[in-house]
Amino acid sequence: MYHEPLCQSRSSLCADVADNPSDEYVGHDEPSVLFKSGVAGSGNDITYTVTLPRDPKSQPTASGATGSTWNFQLRPTFWFGLTLCDTESAPEYTKTCLADSDSNDLVGTNPAAPDYIGKHPGNAYMELQFYGPGYVPQFEGFGCTATQYCAAMTIDSLNQDQNTGVANTAACDNYLLGGIEPINWAYITRDGRPQAPANPLFTGTFDNPNLTAVTPDPAKDLFMNPGDRIRIHMHDTSAGLRIDLADLTTGHDGSMTASVANGFGHILYTPTSTTCQAEPYAFHPEYSTGNPRGNTWSAHTYNVAMSDEIGHFENCLTIGADFNCTQPGSQDANGLDEDDDNNFCVPAEDSLLVKINGCFSGDEDFDGQSYRKDWPGTFANVALDRALHPSPARFSSPLANGSTNYSKVAFETDLPRIEAADSQDNPPFCNRTTGADCVNPPHGAQFYPIFTTANVRGSCLWQEGGRFIPGTTRTFGGTSTTEYGPLLKTVYPTVGFTTVTRYNNFNSGDLSNPCRAVRSGR
Q: What's the mean pLDDT in 166-170?
């Protein structure tokens, strides 16, 4: 299905870069909650709890015109993220990165100053991604099994010198998980050992892929049930960042460490080489605290964050031989769009449970289920909402060092980035220099999901969907416009050892954390 590196395909689940490395690169939609703290350890010892969403009893229909909506139609994944060191990643100024240190947080705009952002140590972004049940599994699709969730540690780097604009050798473009934004990939396994080496070159070329790394394996991976309550512990170790998942419902556990022993590695930045080269590498958190903005190259400004990944599904009644949709579902009522949201389609027979066709490319006209009132809490009638919509993903605020709350939060969505002309085909385009035509909700959307808080058995939890989820305590204005706030101007290093500013996000600004977590146990 893929003919270009995954992160440069229009169905990628990778971190959006601030500026496109090629004409083909497309962004995707990531509504997020950012967590801020100046406490030592808040950038490298982080604990959450999350309750995995359930799907309705009735299955979706082939056209999507009526019936229920399942999680895989709203999102291919949701994730919990953190910035890591990678000495071969952008901005490519230095080959050193002192792990777990806010001394790395260089964000100045004066090229002559020691804190100039272009002198920042190399950085990568880790996403602990959860994949839901019921549809087509990795890597043809983005699912797990017929009835259970699984999770993977994914680490995105950027092999580009931000101070010169020079990208890494094109020899890396032949790898499925390579290209300008290579990915380390490893499922959370029951014994902490990966089912295959995690480094981007192991997965192979398009002519000779080794998909053992990215296909769920019931003999090795930690599988979790809808409705299970999961404790997430991200923490640094001498071997690398370790993630432990404890299923508090079933008692099962799993882990993964971004270590050399587990086959993690980084692609070497060798722009003049005729071959793509990698070295073993242990990834460690880049910062001590949760306050730094994050990396220097992504559209988002997050370090410690929870994000959803939306806008990657549309129904299709008939799929052509080229895996493109020839007869659309109800979202495209007037026929096929001129955009690419009808590409990268999968047939019903490849699904593990829900036997409908679907297309995964970026929803550039914002008309799929992600942008309709198909989310939990979008109907005031609770019984109808529960019958047709999934339950919400619910998660706690993180705790630093297992006990300390984060003092601030912020809401952020990268809509301006994906409304720009180099990320989609449908005008009006967002001008990321002036902010003109950058809108929230996006053109074509009937709805845009928001984060709210709820009181659940005496604990405050975050949840995502609409404002009518039972138990909701705060809605932050009740709309995406009020919650995600105004345009945010962000500085990036750029060609010529200077800086450029972009409107890539709407951001609420820092708010006092209204949803404090309590220490959890089994």
A: 96
Burial 40-57 (b: 16+ CB within 10 A, else e): ebbbbbbbbbbbbbbbbe
| pLDDT tens-digit series, residues 94-105 | 999 999 999 999
Please answer whether residues 364 and 339 qualify as being in contact, where contact means their C-beta atoms are separated by less than 8 angstroms.
Answer: yes
HEC string of 401-448? Answer: CCCEECCEEEEEECHHHHCCCCCCCCCCCCCCCCCCCCCCCCCCCCCC
Tell me how crowded residue 514 is: count the other CB atoms within 10 A of its CB. 13
DSSP-derived 3-state class of residue 350: helix
Q: How far apart are CA 14 and CA 175, in angstroms?
A: 15
Contact status, residue 117 vs residue 107, Cβ threshold 8 Å: yes
**For the chain, give me the number of helices (H) and strands (E)?**
4, 26
Q: Residue 492 is inside which H or E element, if any?
A: strand 487-494
DSSP sequence for 196-236: S--STTTTBBSSSB-GGGTS--TTTBPPB-TT-EEEEEEEE
Q: Which of 240, 91, 238 is nearest to 167 (CA)?
A: 91
Rounded distance between C-alpha atoms, residue 54 and residue 94, angstroms: 46
User: What is the rounded CA–CA span in Å between residue 353 and residue 69?
Assistant: 14
Residues 404 and 379: beta-carbon distance below 8 Å:
no
- Report d(CA 197, CA 279) in Å as an integer: 12
% helix / strand / coil in the chain, to the nearest 5? 10, 30, 60
Record the pTM.
0.96
**Alpha carbon distance 126, 128 (integer Å):** 7
Mean pLDDT of the chain: 93
Q: How far apart are CA 166 and CA 180, in angstroms?
A: 10
Digit-coded pLDDT (tens) for 47-60: 999 999 999 999 99
CA–CA distance, 431 with 452 (Å, rounded to integer):
30
Distance CA 269, CA 107 (A): 23
Q: Taking the CA atoms of the chain, what radius of gyration do you get in angstroms?
A: 21
